[in-house]
Design brief:
Elements (H helix, E strand, L loop, with lengths): L2 H34 L4 H30 L3 H37 L6 H23 L2 H31 L4 H33 L11
Length: 220
């Protein structure tokens, strides 16, 4: 193992941590801004999303460079592979943050919609899962990662309940159809954040234990 390889791996680690922090802040600002009805939120977050896209490209290039130059094996190879996967998951979460802000603008343009109380609970659960999945990567904590995977079912249940809440509200007031469709999208985006957090957690289990647990819910 050369000193150059060690430095490249350390730089890669710093890069993915920077991306983790930026994406987590972005999705929190998106959800908080949605609740507060902040104007101009989508445009603001789009600018920050482009910065995250640039980070995604840089980290992906660094991973490919390491693979081409150093041919890592065993734990080092797993780490590079996992960083590439986590990078892709984080980039998608950033895109969801922008989409949530865009849907918030759509709701504002259509008029208010009676926000279901469960949406706040679902948002907290999904964002908590993302935070813990990132922590599990930083700490290389497979136990915490497996806990994140277990929590996805609760978010899925809240998603189903929220859809029923929105449908019920629309049935009672047809003028809410357009804003309700935007809210459907917000709910789905929040649920997808939990899915990406689960994917990150599964990657952490692979990194730490070498076990592939995707598509094997009984082994989580």
């Amino acid at each position: 193992m050369t000193i150059h390889f060690v430095r490249e791996m350390e730089e890669l680690h710093r890069g993915i941590l920077t991306m983790c922090s930026a994406v987590e802040e972005l999705i929190h600002d998106s959800v908080d801004g949605f609740r507060a009805g902040r104007e101009g939120l989508a445009q603001e977050l789009s600018v920050r999303d482009r910065e995250i896209d640039a980070l995604d490209n840089r980290i992906s290039e660094d991973c490919l460079k390491i693979l081409a130059l150093y041919h890592p094996v065993a734990n080092d190879l797993r780490r590079v592979a996992v960083v590439m996967r986590i990078c892709a998951e984080l980039e998608r979460v950033a895109d969801l943050a922008v989409s949530i802000a865009e849907r918030a603008a759509g709701i504002s343009a259509c008029g208010s919609f009676p926000m279901p109380e469960r949406l706040g609970q679902m948002s907290r659960e999904a964002l908590g899962m993302l935070h813990d999945s990132i922590d599990s990567f930083v700490e290389q904590n497979a136990g915490l990662a497996r806990d994140v995977c277990q929590r996805d079912d609760a978010v899925d249940s809240l998603n189903s309940e929220l859809i029923k809440d929105v449908v019920s509200a629309i049935k009672q007031n047809a003028s809410l159809v357009e804003s309700g469709l935007h809210l459907f999208s917000v709910i789905r985006h929040v649920e997808r954040v939990a899915d990406h957090a689960t994917n990150i957690a599964e990657d952490v289990v692979y990194l730490v234990e070498g076990a592939i647990i995707r598509h094997q819910p009984t082994t989580r």
